[in-house]
Each structure stands twice: as C-alpha cells, then as structure tokens.
Amino acid sequence: MKQQTEKGLVYYQFESLLPAKHGIFTRKGGVSQAPWASLNMGGNVGDAPHAVRRNHDLMYEALQVNQERVCTVWQVHSADTVIAYQPVKGRRWLALADGLITDRTDTPLVMRYADCVPLLFLDPVQGVIGIAHAGWRGTVSGVGSRLVQTMIQAFNCKPSNIRAGIGPSIGPDHYQVGEEVVEAVQKHFGTTEGLIMRHPDDGTAYLNLWEANRLDLQRAGVEQIELIAISTYSNTDEFFSHRAEKGKTGRFGAVISL
C-alpha cells in the first residue's frame, strides 16, 4: 500500500497494481461543502452538481488520466460485469452493473463508494484492468469472482496472472448485519467461519467484507491479493461512511487506467 498526495488530494495505491495508473481517493482536497466535504464523487446524494463535476476534474488531474474517455456504471449492488470500450455518447454511464473491465489503454474505469468494498484488478500479461463495487449483496453474489470469469472469457486472462486489490470499506468490527445476510453468506460460501462474527453479549452478527471478498477471489483462482485494511466507519475524517454518518454523506472515488 502506498499513500500519495497531489495538490491536496490524498489517495491510496496498491503496490502490486502500480503498472496501471490507479487510486482510491479519500474525501480530502475537494470543493464540496458539509456534509459532503470535500472530495465527493456522488452525483445523487444531494451535493451541488457543479461541485461534484469539479471534484471529478480534480481526481482525474491528480492521476493524469484521460477524462474524455472515462467509463463508469450505474451501481445497483449486483454481480454483473460489463466490458468498456469507450464512453456512451450523451450518457455518463454504460449500464446498470457493479463490475467493469477493459483492455483499452487511456480508458479510465471509475466507481464510487461509502462503506462498500472497492475491488481493483490488473492482468499485466494480457493488459486488462477491472474495477468492482462489492456491498454485502454483491459479495454474496460473487461480484469479484464473476468479474474474474469475465476477464477469462473475454480476454483469455489466466487467474494466476490476475492481481487484485481490496480497498477501504466498513470494517468487520462495525458491520452489523441481520440473519438474512448470515444465511446468504452460508449459501454462497458454504460456511460462515472467518466471515461472520458474533457479539459475545447479544449474539448479533458482524460481516467481514474484506475476508469474504478475499475468499471469493481465491476460489476464482486469484493468488495475488493485496488488502488496504482501513475501515471507513472508523475513519470518517478520511473516508465517507454511509453507516457511520447515518446516510448523510458523500462518495469517495476509485479510478484505474491502463
């Protein structure tokens, strides 16, 4: 993990993914006012549209990627992955999905987060990148492993060549979930060991999104997995957290480009 600062913007990088331009940006260095202060990338959370646009400009400038070819999706907590070749004219997003891959150079892939897990991917052999948004629904539907399968099918990638990064999200100590989530974890993984923890006093369940996504990727054959174990819930000075801030907050951005 590397922390970088560029013109007041702070972002994290996975060392294993550094052959690709990428960054998971914090909430610092933008122009949005509270409660979206300050580098908010979410266009549907109540923030001023001009501030969100400026924040995007700043993010792309910090990484020196081509803003004219940015591709993104309308995130819907699914496990669907789409292939990006170029932006859709007259629309800011390609499709309703939570996974995005490309083999095109100079084509940044972008998503937004506020407790869900950013997943970034690179196959340096085939020259393919990917990004995913993994909340609990996407995680128990295998959004990460399904993205890997799409890389294999579309671009002949080998899982052993794929490098994956698991970014900051709500940590296992604070992600309390209901029994329906426990059942979904059991159904997808065949176990809850290491994934669900119970509070010693009242038995309530807590989900470890980091470990769940790591296991999902390992089962897909990915061997090179890097984790940034920073909890958004516990670090609202640095990241937006939907749960810690009771829904009134922004979205931090993640970008990857060949």
**Distance separating the two termini:** 19 Å
Q: Which regions have little confidence, pLDDT < 50, spanning 5+ residues?
A: none
Q: Please name the fourth-level CATH homologous superfamily.
A: CNF1/YfiH-like putative cysteine hydrolases
Q: How many strands appear in the DSSP assignment?
A: 14
- By CATH, the architecture is named 4-Layer Sandwich
Shape: globular
Q: Would you tell me the structural class of the helices and strands?
A: alpha+beta
Walk me through the structure.
This protein has 258 residues and is of the alpha+beta class. The chain has a single domain, classed as CNF1/YfiH-like putative cysteine hydrolases, CATH 3.60.140. It contains five helices and 14 strands. It has a six-stranded mixed sheet with strand order 4-5-8-7-9-13. Strands 1-2-3-14-6 form a five-stranded antiparallel sheet, covered by helices on one side. β11 and β12 form a beta hairpin. The longest helix has 15 residues. The two termini are 19 Å apart. The model has no long low-confidence stretch (mean pLDDT 97).
Report a brief summary of the structure.
By secondary structure, this protein is an alpha+beta fold. A hairpin with a 7-residue loop joins strand 2 (9-13) and strand 3.
Which terms would index this structure?
alpha+beta; single chain; CNF1/YfiH-like putative cysteine hydrolases; globular; five-stranded antiparallel sheet; 258 residues; six-stranded mixed sheet
